[in-house]
Design brief:
Helix content is 61%, strand content 5%. It starts with 13 loop residues before the first helix and ends in a 5-residue tail after the last helix. The protein is elongated.
Length: 462
């Protein structure tokens, strides 16, 4: 019989059992469900809602069930619907009527809200630590390439020279924001809903703060109706994960471009590349492409969750069971992507020479020629026009700005002098941009220092 079978005269249709059941995917929350139940039973005993002995027996048996699950001794049943009722049923099968007291003052509605918060707390902490590792790799690459000059792009057209370190530290900032977002999301996840009952709390004198403390929650929820209806923290997490994947995907897109023969800025290690079944010469950046591709399914989870919640009346509705597969898939995807991405960039070869050559073409120092004229007294807009004409001249003659003779320079403006060559060298273009946040070595070193401090201090739960 079902745990809720009292008012029914017929068994559930087999197909409905399958359809309704979430055990297939919510069994991964077994540990959190048991921890939550142990804390609840502990509190019931402490508040004299059940006896001390009953509380002890329930807690001890739940701990044994946990061990048995972990040792693969338990198979869950589809007709016990979900992880919550599966575990309660096992408990009852072991200790009979005492087991039937566990659910006193509790509903599956506040129970599932508790379990998912606890489960997600752990997942978020795990993802955050993977991200911290990735940040360390980004810093490692930056420190190695402080002097590696490469072209910076806008519109995918060569724009101004930067360094590979500067480019890497741009991603550091994105992942830093991802870490901050996860932490913020964690803080709202870390609120204890038990005691909200089905929707209207309960008449038993539960000690909600005690349960919160046992389970490491920062606070308790403030409205029973909201507590069982709220899935904001799941949507927030899906949103954090979507933004994180968007960052990974942009990074991957650049690596794919840079791996092409036309760029040849980087080469993925053989261990992180794949070949073609027909073209013997091929070495494809499949890992980066797959991460880019998987970004879509994480966005999909976010949209699933938003759509699932958008017209639900208060309080709990069964629709909300659909939250799990969506967020679990997003979590699994991110947890698969992060380590493989981390190792891929850690092991890739950076072609310093090709990056430099790339920065030499495309008139990346044109702004610096204009700035040179400004420093000699010409208004910027005029200098821009002069240099624009010079670029046109260079294109016609097949020259670059730094290979023009002094005569050619003078013909464009008499403000030019021998010192122009030094002023527009790629090294000077980079070093001259030494404002905080700029590509000059000192500025990048400073951002690396700040980044290291951030990583050292980062903790998900404070
Ligand atoms: N398996 C359900 C879920 O994941 C648990 C809560 C069910 N509550 C209920 N009254 N049907 O949402």
């Amino acid at each position: 019989m079902k745990l809720w079978g009292g008012r029914f005269q017929k068994a559930t249709d087999r197909a409905v059992d399958d359809f309704n059941s979430s055990i297939r995917f919510d069994q991964r929350m077994y540990r959190h469900d048991i921890q939550g139940s142990i804390a609840h039973a502990d509190m019931l005993g402490k508040c004299n809602i059940i006896t001390q002995q009953e509380s002890e027996l329930i807690k001890k048996t739940l701990a044994e069930i946990l061990e048995d699950i972990e040792n693969g001794k338990i198979t869950f049943e589809v007709d016990a619907e979900d992880i919550h009722m599966n575990i309660e049923k096992i408990l009852i099968s072991r200790i009979g009527d005492v087991g039937k007291k566990l659910h006193t003052g509790r509903s599956r509605n506040d129970q599932v809200a508790l379990d998912i918060r606890m489960y997600l707390r752990d997942e978020v902490a795990q993802i955050a630590s993977m991200l911290v590792e990735l940040e360390q790799t980004v810093i490692y690459l930056s420190e190695k390439h402080l002097d590696t000059i490469m072209p910076g792009y806008t519109h995918l057209q060569k724009a101004q020279p930067i360094t590979f370190a500067h480019h890497m530290m741009a991603y550091f900032q994105m992942f830093r924001r991802d870490l901050e977002r996860l932490k913020d999301c964690y803080s709202r996840m870390n609120i204890m809903p038990l005691g909200s009952g089905a929707l209207a709390g309960t008449t038993y004198p539960l000690d909600r703060y005690y349960v919160a403390k046992q389970l490491g929650f920062k606070d308790i929820t403030q409205n029973s109706l909201d507590a069982v209806s709220d899935r904001d923290f799941i949507i927030e997490l899906a949103s954090c994960l979507s933004i994180l994947m968007m960052h990974l995907s942009r990074f991957c897109e650049e690596l794919i471009l840079w791996s092409s023969h036309e760029f040849s800025f980087v080469e993925m290690d053989d261990a992180y590349s794949t070949g073609s079944s027909i073209m013997p010469q091929k070495k494809n950046p499949d890992v980066a492409e797959l991460i880019r591709g998987k970004t879509g399914r994480v966005y999909g989870s976010l949209i699933t969750l938003l759509t699932m919640m958008k017209s639900l009346p208060l309080a709990y509705n069964k629709d909300m069971q659909e939250d799990k597969e969506a967020i679990f898939d997003a979590l699994d995807t991110v947890k698969m992507c992060l380590p493989v991405f981390n190792n891929m960039i850690k092991t890739m070869k950076v072609n310093v020479k090709n990056m430099y050559t790339g920065a030499q073409g495309g008139f990346t120092n044109a702004t610096d020629v204009a700035d040179y004229l400004v420093k000699k007294g010409l208004p910027f807009r005029k200098a821009h026009e002069v240099v624009g004409k010079m670029v046109l001249y260079c294109i016609e003659k097949g020259k670059s700005l730094d290979t023009l003779t002094m005569e050619e320079y003078k013909a464009c403006s008499d403000l030019f002098d021998e010192d122009v060559y030094r002023a527009i060298s790629l090294e000077q273009c980079v070093q001259g941009r030494n404002l905080p946040g700029g590509p000059a070595k000192e500025a990048v070193l400073d951002s690396i220092e700040k980044g290291k401090k951030f990583i050292e201090k980062y903790k998900i739960d404070e």
